[in-house]
Design brief:
This protein is of the alpha/beta class. Helices cover 41% and strands 15% of the residues. It has 13 helices and twelve strands. The longest helix has 19 residues. The chain starts with 8 loop residues before the first helix and ends in a 5-residue tail after the last helix.
């Protein structure tokens, strides 16, 4: 169960895991809560899909009636929920059907200031109706523990899984005449592309030469394009839109930049690292723990274009051999910690209640 199938990291991660679980013999149905189904075409054909159509307060009663119908029809042994609203609905199911094993996954930290009631309080009040709660990064799990939302015995960090063979680093890293950056992510507020563009202006004024390609789409597309034009960055910044085969493009770049103000464990970051790109990223979610663990990146404060620009300049002024070595460190770290079959083994242990 997931909140939606829009264009996001949690959604992409789930769609990548489902076929591998089906290959291992699991009979899978997917339930979406909101009718945002941009990625539905990527759903494995072996999987039945149900949508609750919960797109407003007026649809709550009909959505819960449909949920009950789906539970009676599918008769699941396990419900694995992803993202906040799905996690809460999974607990509601556990209240009514205590024999179902319910596993929650949090894909990011929660900003309690933006909600009337803190998500951590909701989790704490309903913790008896979940069997296991995972998070995709250590900082996210630490917050769940700190807020008393789940006890340590029923929780763990389970990293996102990467198909490392698909995002393998090339044997020879090309050296571009002008430094080529890539950023990947939806064109939405939380990705803070304005922060990136402000940093690029500073770099341009300091005499640095570079290009930045942005892969992704979203509500802010026209607004961000206007900002690029106003900032005089038309020659440096290119919007690629949605890119289906990003793994084919990544080896062409010299570095990956992530300017977000909030994250969990960004899939695009892991994919770029797997492809051997050094990284400049903001200190949000699991980014610091990953880059410091790998040793192939620069971490800077969020919402600070001066710091972001300095971090990008650090990569651009390194010699090619040193950057390539950073990329190799990143690729090795992802392979050793995020390889898909290893992560799937962990999920199976949780599903079957054999994880210590």
């Amino acid at each position: 169960m997931i909140t939606s199938l829009g264009f996001g990291g949690a959604e992409s991660q789930l769609l990548g895991i489902i076929p591998a679980l089906a290959d291992r013999g699991y009979d899978i149905s997917l339930l979406t809560i909101k009718t945002d189904l941009g990625l539905l075409g990527r759903l494995d054909k072996r999987v039945r899909h149900y949508d609750l159509g919960l797109n407003g307060a007026k649809a709550i009663l009909s959505a819960f009636r449909k949920l009950n119908q789906v539970i009676k029809k599918v008769k699941p042994d396990i419900i694995h929920t992803h993202l906040y609203h799905a996690n809460l609905i999974g607990r509601f199911v556990k209240m009514r059907y205590p024999g179902i094993r319910v596993i929650n996954t949090s894909h990011s930290n929660y900003d309690a200031r933006k909600r009337v009631i803190s998500p951590y309080l909701f989790y704490k009040l309903t913790s008896r109706w979940v069997d296991y709660h995972t998070a995709v990064s250590a900082p996210a799990l630490e917050l769940l523990h700190e807020k008393g939302s789940i006890d340590a015995q029923r929780s763990a960090v389970i990293y996102n899984a990467i198909d490392v063979d698909r995002f393998a680093m090339p044997a020879e890293k090309p050296q571009n005449p002008v430094f080529r950056w890539i950023a990947i992510g939806r064109l939405i507020e939380v990705k803070d592309y304005r922060n990136l563009f402000d940093a690029l202006q500073l770099l341009l004024r300091s005499g640095m030469h570079f290009t930045v390609d942005i892969a992704g789409d979203g509500d802010l597309k026209h607004e961000l394009k206007a900002q690029v034009e106003l900032a005089g960055l038309n020659r440096q910044v290119r919007f690629l839109g949605l890119v289906k085969n990003i793994s084919h493009l990544l080896p062409e770049y010299d570095g990956y930049v992530i300017s977000s103000r909030s994250e969990g464990m960004p899939m695009a970051l892991l994919e770029a690292m797997s492809a051997g790109l050094p990284v400049t990223g903001t200190d949000v979610g699991g980014i610091r723990s990953i880059l410091e663990g790998a040793g192939g990146g620069v971490v800077v404060p969020p919402r600070d274009p001066v710091a972001l620009g300095a971090g990008m300049k650090q990569l651009m002024t390194m010699d090619h051999a040193a950057r390539t070595e950073w990329g190799r460190k990143n690729a090795a770290f992802v392979k050793n910690n995020f390889e898909k079959s290893m992560i799937l083994n962990t999920w199976e242990a949780i599903y079957e209640n054999t994880k210590a």
